[in-house]
Write a structure and sequence with these properties.
The structure is a single chain. The protein has three domains: about 80 residues, 2-Layer Sandwich (Uridine Diphospho-n-acetylenolpyruvylglucosamine Reductase, domain 2); about 130 residues, Uridine Diphospho-n-acetylenolpyruvylglucosamine Reductase, domain 3 (2-Layer Sandwich), CATH 3.30.465; about 80 residues, Alpha-Beta Complex (Uridine Diphospho-n-acetylenolpyruvylglucosamine Reductase, domain 1). The chain is about 25% helix and about 30% strand. The protein has seven helices and 18 strands. The strands form five sheets. Strands 6, 7, 8, 11, 12 and 13 form a six-stranded antiparallel beta sheet that branches. The longest helix has 19 residues.
């Protein structure tokens, strides 16, 4: 079997690994094959082998913005745990080089406390550099694309490429990695940060942290479920159609923030999809607005909504 051959050539690969513990939602069935890669070379080898064998694959970071199917994933799941980074101070600027598996929040804190401005808005965001770039993560007026200089990727044909931000089609919670580069994998990135005041940046991060704690639920979730439609807030729309606090199984639109679906214990991906489709349909029927999912879906199709899919 192709799966057996792949397992033979990958050190540390596991079979039928439950994916729920590897996601912030705590939802998802097993991966046929599972590998935690600690170097870019391990990522590259695993994906090239999977491609050669015709085995489907997907790369995870911290699993913070994903929904995994209840039946799991029928191929190879690679967790990118590549965690090297370096900060080079160059007068009034600094060059930050980081592998894709590095925690975004950790880099935000580290650089801000050293007096470097550019990532402080990301304090408290639980994802990795790779996932943040792919979704152009942002908060409090900042986003990943703002200070990005270069991204190294593994292309669809297994080649390493270095790309500039202008080649990555950045937009609101969007990049080329959700479009023409969807089959590519982010390996590392360079950021240019600017000199700031460490005390001021620390105070700013404390304010951001306090606001997140006050406005976001503590139960397992995948963060914001929907993008904000232009000129509107998804949470407000969901609340206005009567779904704030609404529950299907153990999945629930949070009573604290309606654009978060939380896992109250034993939620299933199917429960989450039902909630998402319900919200999409109601918001369309009441306001004529489309809610676009912000999540990535592994092993299942995204919800289309019954009205406007």
């Amino acid at each position: 079997m192709k799966v057996d051959r792949l397992a033979k050539f990958l050190n540390g690969v596991k079979r039928d690994e439950p994916l729920a513990p590897h996601t912030s939602f705590r939802i998802g069935g097993p991966a046929k094959l599972f590998l935690r890669a600690k170097t870019a070379e391990e990522v590259e080898k695993a994906l090239n082998l999977a491609q050669e064998e015709g085995i489907p694959w997907v790369v995870l970071g911290k699993g913070t913005n994903v929904l995994v199917a209840d039946g799991g994933f029928p191929g190879l799941v690679v967790v990118n745990a590549c965690g090297r980074f370096e900060l080079e101070e160059l007068g009034d600027k600094a060059l930050l080089r980081a592998e894709a598996g590095v925690s975004l929040a950790h880099l935000a804190r580290l650089t801000a406390l050293k007096g470097w401005e550019g990532l402080e808005w990301a304090e408290g965001i639980p994802g990795t550099i790779g996932g943040a770039i792919a979704g152009n993560a942002g908060a409090f007026g900042g986003c990943v694309a703002d200070f990005l200089e270069r991204v190294e990727i593994l292309g669809e044909k297994g080649q390493r490429l270095s790309l500039k931000p202008e080649e990555l089609a950045f937009g609101y919670r969007h990049s080329a990695f959700k479009g023409k580069l969807k089959g590519s994998v982010i390996l590392s990135a360079d950021f240019t940060l600017v000199k700031g005041e460490a005390r001021e940046l620390k105070e700013r991060m404390l304010r951001y942290r306090a606001e997140r704690r006050a406005k976001q639920p503590k139960e397992p979730s995948a963060g914001s479920v929907f993008k904000n439609p232009p000129g509107h807030y998804a949470a407000k729309l969901i609340e206005e159609v009567g779904l704030k606090g609404f529950r299907v199984g153990d999945a629930c639109f949070s009573p604290i923030h309606a654009n978060f679906i939380v896992n109250l214990g034993q939620a299933k991906a199917s429960d989450v999809l039902k909630l998402m489709e319900l919200a999409m349909d109601r918001v369309w029927n009441v306001f004529g607005l489309k809610l676009e999912p912000e999540l990535e879906f592994i092993g299942l199709n995204p919800p289309g909504g019954k009205i406007h899919g």
